[in-house]
Amino acid sequence: MNKIRLGIIGLGGIAGRIIPTFLKHPKTDLRGGFDIDAARMRRIKNSYGIIMANNAEELINDENIDAIYLAVPPKLHHDFSIKIMRAGKHILCEKPLAGTIKEAKEMHEVAIETQIVHAMNFPLHYGFAYDRIKELLEAKSFGALKRIDLSVLYPVWPRVWQQNAWIASREEGGFVREVFTHFIHLIQTTFGPINNIHSFVEYPEDESKCETGLIALGELENGVKVVFNGITDVNQETDLRLTIYGTEGSIELKDWNKLTVKMGQESFVSSGDFKNSSKTSNSTFKMIDAFYQAIEGKESNVVTFEDGLLATKVVERLLGNV
């Protein structure tokens, strides 16, 4: 079996969660990693036995590496990804694709120019819920589409497991970029582009800090409204849900992997695989597998930089950065 020789740039919270899944994949040959935090590199090295590079460029220019997983903060995606692609390396990039629409466009253009496999870390796309929602909608059991609601409540942001400076910053972080991006991708790949966005964003007095609330309205090409509602720093349990309303029923995806189908007075609940540790069903494993299949020239449902660009456009419009 030919293995994919992988390097990882950025070893923070998200990378720490995905490394075990990379290692479960039989085609992964993890050749090295790098992070600007020396203590973090030591922890990852001690945990997984990964060889650490002296700097990111060492991995980018290593002829014995086929692909890079880029897990640095968003404002660094643009420069690093272009270096990676121009070095002939395939790339799996964290979301959001970039810190600005302009940067995201340039990244997409270089990906097309270099013909490098370019993928996004959107595991929700590979989970049971995404496929099940499509199946239910294709069956036309819910009647005409009436509305889509995306809402989130966090008692604290950043989340307890993801405490760092950038994810709390207005420049790069916040729940709109970090969480809504996944669901915006799901909505747009299922229903088409979200346009005509009108948004009200709440920020703290500290101008360096990210949003604490958002209420927004968008519109699909058929006129159906998409409602966005988010709030943080409230004394309640985390509540994240996407609800799709039809004239005859509704579909609700709660907390990433709990799908509820309602038809009149009847409800059907099923739990998915987003957090399942089994390598055969885990959506992150499927994402990695799709990335590897694309590298091997096989048919693949990999989420590309074009998808990331489309999601970034909506995110930045929601935040009023256009």
In a few lines, what is going on in this structure?
This protein is 33% helix and 25% strand.
Describe this entry's structure for a reader.
The protein has 322 residues and is an alpha/beta fold. It folds into two domains: 4-121 and 279-303, 3-Layer(aba) Sandwich (Rossmann fold), CATH 3.40.50.720; 128-272, Dihydrodipicolinate Reductase, domain 2, CATH 3.30.360. It is built from nine helices and 13 strands. Helix 4 packs parallel to helix 5 (101-114). The longest helix is centred in the middle third of the chain and has 17 residues, at 175-191. The model is unreliable at 273-281 (pLDDT under 50).
Main attributes of the structure:
single chain; 322 residues; alpha/beta; Rossmann fold; Dihydrodipicolinate Reductase, domain 2; 2 domains; eight-stranded mixed sheet; five-stranded parallel sheet; 9 helices
Helical proportion, percent range? 25-40%
Number of strands: 13
State the strand order across the main sheet.
7-8-9-6-10-11-12-13
Largest sheet: 8 strands, mixed
Secondary-structure blueprint:
Elements: E1 4-9, H1 13-24, E2 28-34, H2 38-48, H3 56-60, E3 67-70, H4 77-86, E4 90-93, H5 101-114, E5 118-120, H6 128-138, E6 145-154, H7 175-191, E7 195-202, E8 213-219, E9 225-232, E10 239-246, E11 250-254, E12 258-263, E13 266-271, H8 283-295, H9 305-318
Parallel strand pairs: 1-2, 1-3, 3-4, 4-5, 6-9
Antiparallel strand pairs: 6-10, 7-8, 8-9, 10-11, 11-12, 12-13
Helix pairs in contact: 4-5, 5-9, 7-9
